[in-house]
Specification:
Low-confidence stretches: none
Strand order of the largest sheet: 1-2
Distance between the termini: 63 Å
Number of strands: 2
Number of helices: 1
Mean pLDDT: 86
Helix content: 10-25%
Radius of gyration: 26 Å
Structural class: little secondary structure
Order of helices and strands: EEH
């Protein structure tokens, strides 16, 4: 394997023919052989409401339901009025 001299980051689109189409021309004179690494974006992002819903039913927070965790009352602290 040849030594890598330079790395270029750019964006591209994979078209319907499964071909890579660069968004902008490369700053390199060609023709020359290159190695390509394709990083796909995950499309599993969830919105805040869905995240909060999932967090509220996650058993990782079950310890908060234990009596020894209930250390505050409505009389603790000062009221906050925004």
């Amino acid at each position: 394997m040849d030594k890598i001299e330079k790395a270029i980051e750019t964006t591209a689109t994979i078209n319907a023919k499964r071909q890579l189409v660069l968004d902008e021309p490369l700053p390199v004179a060609g023709p020359q052989k290159v190695r390509v690494i394709i990083l796909l974006q995950e499309e599993t992002d969830i919105d805040e409401k869905e995240w909060l819903k999932l967090a509220s039913v996650n058993n990782a927070f079950d310890f908060l339901k234990e009596p020894e965790e209930d250390i505050y009352t409505s009389f603790d602290g000062k009221p906050f009025h925004d």
